[in-house]
Amino acid sequence: MKFIETGIEDLWEINPSIHRDHRGYFMESFHTSKFDEMGISSSFVQDNQSFSKKGVLRGLHFQKPPFSQGKLISVLQGEVLDIVVDIRKSSATYGKYFSCVLNDKKYNMLYVPEGMAHGFLALKDSLFAYKCTNFYHHQSEAGIVWNDPDLAIDWGSVKPILSEKDAVLPTFREMMEKL
Question: In order of start, what are the domains of the chain with their CATH numbers?
Fold first, then answer.
């Protein structure tokens, strides 16, 4: 398992060791001791899965304190463009974003710490999985509109399929003024 720095503190891309042969493959997707060595919380309390058709964009979502969540994100089938925005006001990378492609070829993962907004664009029909360090709390749910001009996230040239809720989320500035 290889942990790769992303340029945003506490946000890690994780590349597992994949052992393939004529039968298929085996990989270790989580190991408490290895995560603890990297200073990554391994206190997961909830696992979630979602399926998104190609072109679906979900996000940018987060939960407000004290219900913030760290997440270990992976794609079980398909491919997504994954986006994480640092919304920690005291961070040197506040307002910056990181993007990477997660897919079922590399089986790479992201550990997203608390204090980040997260979203993804399904580049193919995709089965998405994530482990959370805190339980979902509806009243703490928040988000930032995907096409915020200040963040200037490069989602590519697709016209995304959005939920009604995601289409009307506030801008980065509007949301940060509320927190």
Answer: 2-178 (2.60.120.10)
For 22-34, the three-class secondary structure string (H helix, E strand, C coil) is CCEEEECCCCHHH
What are the structure tokens assigned to 5, written together? 């720095």
pLDDT digits (tens, 9 = 90+) for 73-131: 999 999 999 999 999 999 999 999 999 999 999 999 999 999 999 999 999 999 999 99
Q: In this predicted structure, what is the pLDDT of residue 151? A: 97
- Beta carbons within 8 Å of 136's beta carbon, 6+ residues apart: 46, 48, 63, 69
Check whether 153 has a pLDDT greater than 90.
yes
Residue of 18, 38, 36 lying closest to 28 (CA atoms): 18
Return the ∠ at Cα 83 (arms to 110 and 154), rounded to 5°. 145
Which residues are part of the catalytic machinery?
61, 130
Question: Which secondary-structure segment (H or E) carries 146?
Answer: none
CA angle 32, 87, 79 (to 5 degrees): 60
